[in-house]
Request: fold
Amino acid sequence: LRIGQGIVGHAAATRAVVRVDDTRLDARYVLDDENRLSELAIPLVHDDRMFGVLDSEHSLPRFYTDRHE
Reply:
C-alpha cells in the first residue's frame, strides 16, 4: 500500500490515529474480509519522523475503544 491508501495509509498520511468500528462501512478499507470487522491504526512518529503504523484488527465490530488508543 502507498501512503494515503487504505486505513493504514490514511493513518500514515495524516499522522493521526484511525479507529474503524465496522470495516464493511468504511470506503478506505481495501480488503474484502468478513473476519476483520474492526481496525485500529496508530502512526508511530518520533521527532516529526514517521517510522510506521501499528495496525490491529479484530473480528468483532466496534471492538476498539478510547482505552485501546
In short: The longest strand covers residues 49-58.
